[in-house]
């Protein structure tokens, strides 16, 4: 029975991750720490529906004191439940930021959340992850962070997002190399372009589809996947024309 911690759980991909994890059998999932800046109505509904399984922890990615304060809370819950450690950390929280390079006055701020934030989450929760059975870190990246694929995304207006996701991919590789001898699996995942809200209603896939694939990849990927940049697989999307394809293969850096 695995224990998960998910950042950015109040909405979008993060909320769907918690919801799908909570619905899995007791033999597969024990506890999900759903972290967010605040507990909104949707997240509160999940904690009330699964009171012994979904634990809300206030945590703002990028806020050092908030991240530090969350560690002993998670550790205490694990001890009370008689659990050894944390099995899977999913670094999901992120922000988009400036659309064009000429507008990037906020790059430092976006970098702090999208790159430094996940880095500090790994550092701070590493002692608990070392005590876990699965020892997995899943960094939610994006295919638009691929430098190789930038010619096709040239007109996609998300400059700060692209830059920070490329940096997050390197962060994944560096941590994967450092923790490999300890049996860790650290991967970047492309979740696909998902219909997370009204602004993304025209996106490729329902959020449930992408999240289901994220969790399936996280479940089945072991040390052979350490340090890789993995794409989701959606039947019919392997060679579909357009910006995005979802073939389940490694994405180029």
UniProtKB/TrEMBL annotation:
The lineage of its organism: Eukaryota, Fungi, Dikarya, Ascomycota, Pezizomycotina. Gene3D superfamilies: NAD(P)-binding Rossmann-like Domain (3.40.50.720). Belongs to the short-chain dehydrogenases/reductases (SDR) family. One of its GO terms (molecular function) is oxidoreductase activity, acting on the CH-OH group of donors, NAD or NADP as acceptor. It comes from Talaromyces pinophilus (Penicillium pinophilum). InterPro entries: NAD(P)-bd_dom_sf, SDR_enzymes, SDR_fam. Transmembrane segments: none annotated. It comes from the Eukaryota. It holds the Pfam family adh_short. This is Short-chain dehydrogenase.
């Amino acid at each position: 029975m695995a224990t998960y911690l998910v950042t950015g759980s109040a909405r979008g991909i993060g909320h769907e991750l918690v919801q799908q994890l909570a619905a899995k059998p007791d033999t597969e999932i024990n506890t999900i720490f759903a972290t967010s800046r605040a507990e909104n109505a949707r997240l509160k509904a999940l904690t009330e529906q699964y009171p012994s399984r979904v634990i809300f922890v206030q945590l703002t990615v990028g806020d050092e004191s908030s991240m530090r304060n969350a560690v002993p809370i998670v550790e205490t819950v694990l001890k009370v439940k008689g659990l050894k450690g944390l099995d899977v950390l999913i670094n999901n929280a992120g922000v988009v930021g400036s659309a064009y390079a000429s507008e990037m006055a906020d790059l430092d701020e976006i970098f702090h959340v999208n790159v430094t934030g996940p880095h500090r989450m790994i550092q701070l929760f590493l002692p608990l992850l070392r005590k876990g059975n699965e020892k997995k870190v899943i960094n939610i990246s994006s295919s638009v962070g691929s430098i190789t694929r930038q010619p096709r995304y040239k007109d996609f207006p998300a400059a700060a997002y692209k830059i920070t996701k490329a940096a997050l991919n390197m962060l994944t590789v560096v941590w994967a190399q450092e923790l490999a001898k300890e049996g860790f699996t650290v991967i970047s995942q492309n979740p696909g372009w998902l219909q997370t809200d009204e602004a993304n209603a025209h996106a490729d896939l329902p959020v449930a589809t992408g999240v289901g694939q994220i969790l399936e990849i996280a479940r089945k990927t072991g040390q052979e996947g350490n340090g890789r940049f993995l794409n989701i697989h959606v039947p019919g999307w392997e060679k579909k024309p357009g910006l995005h394809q979802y073939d389940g293969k490694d994405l180029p850096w």
